[in-house]
């Protein structure tokens, strides 16, 4: 095999190399698209019957008065598991949709403070755990309302899941120059420094067993990051192990 290129051979060799590199990139892009489509189709095919199963379980639990305690308990566990699996499938679908550019966003001007309060109040543990620490006047942003709600719901859900049941989750909002900054702060277990650069990667989980036990797929933050960036914003985390984490989302105000 030839190990050195002579000057005269170089252009042809370089051209061939560049063509084979292009071919490789093309094959990679096709493989990536096939993988994304497969994930999306499988998630969709599984979610539809599972939603039906969950519907039957819920209606049996509601309507059937003759169930014994153990039968009721069994059905409740099955319904909770179905619920968790549907959420995992929904994450996979969202992720696949975002990666195909199929999710379209609609930017409109609205008051971020009002949306933040709305999401906070709808959080199931609002009374016990959520502290809204907002002193600012309305903050008008140009964003997609649904995307923003999805981002906030996920960050608040994580803050709750990764901290002890009695610990508060604090929501802050401030405006700095042309940026609106939302902070979701918890006093949970924190994230090791080495893991912090990776938590926005798809499927990345710091503690796989614990994450699975709390219902995680490792896709949530990757979806959140993509949604925030689609709205021309950015997200960062600051966290200390054993003390808690702060997720800050900045959006153009
Ligand atoms: P998951 O569905 O596993 O929660 P995410 O993408 O939302 O996936 O988060 C990725 C990982 O980042 C989680 O598995 C968890 O280890 C870590 N993490 C996210 N939010 C927090 C938080 N508020 N406190 C501690 N760890 C967190």
TrEMBL record:
Keywords: Kinase, Membrane, Phosphoprotein, Transferase, Transmembrane, Transmembrane helix, Two-component regulatory system. One of its GO terms (molecular function) is phosphorelay sensor kinase activity. Coiled coil: none annotated. Its EC number is 2.7.13.3. One of its GO terms (cellular component) is membrane. It is an enzyme of class 2 (transferase). It is found in: Membrane. Residues 41-253 form the Histidine kinase domain. It catalyses: ATP + protein L-histidine = ADP + protein N-phospho-L-histidine. This is histidine kinase. The chain holds residues 225 to 477 of 477 of the full protein.
């Amino acid at each position: 095999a030839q190990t050195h290129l002579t000057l005269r051979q170089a252009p042809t060799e370089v051209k061939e190399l560049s063509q084979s590199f292009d071919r490789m990139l093309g094959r990679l892009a096709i493989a990536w698209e096939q993988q994304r489509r497969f994930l999306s189709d499988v998630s969709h095919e599984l979610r539809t019957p599972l939603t039906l199963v969950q519907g039957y379980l819920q209606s049996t639990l509601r309507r059937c008065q003759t169930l014994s305690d153990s039968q009721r308990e069994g059905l409740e566990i099955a319904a909770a598991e179905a619920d968790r699996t549907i959420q995992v499938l929904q994450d996979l679908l969202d992720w696949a949709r975002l990666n195909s550019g199929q999710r379209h966003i609609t930017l409109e001007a609205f008051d971020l403070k009002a949306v933040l309060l709305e999401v906070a109040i709808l959080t199931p543990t609002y009374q016990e755990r959520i502290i809204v620490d907002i002193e600012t006047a309305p903050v008008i942003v140009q964003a997609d309302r649904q995307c923003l709600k999805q981002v906030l719901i996920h960050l608040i859900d994580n803050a709750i899941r990764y901290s002890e049941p009695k610990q508060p989750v604090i929501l802050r909002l401030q405006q700095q120059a042309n940026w609106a900054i939302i902070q979701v702060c918890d006093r949970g277990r924190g994230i090791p420094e080495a893991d912090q650069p990776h938590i926005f990667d798809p499927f990345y989980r710091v503690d796989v067993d614990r994450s699975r036990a709390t219902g995680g797929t490792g896709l949530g933050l990757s979806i959140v990051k993509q949604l925030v960036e689609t709205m021309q914003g950015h997200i960062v985390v600051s966290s200390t192990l054993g003390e808690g984490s702060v997720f800050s989302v900045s959006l153009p105000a």
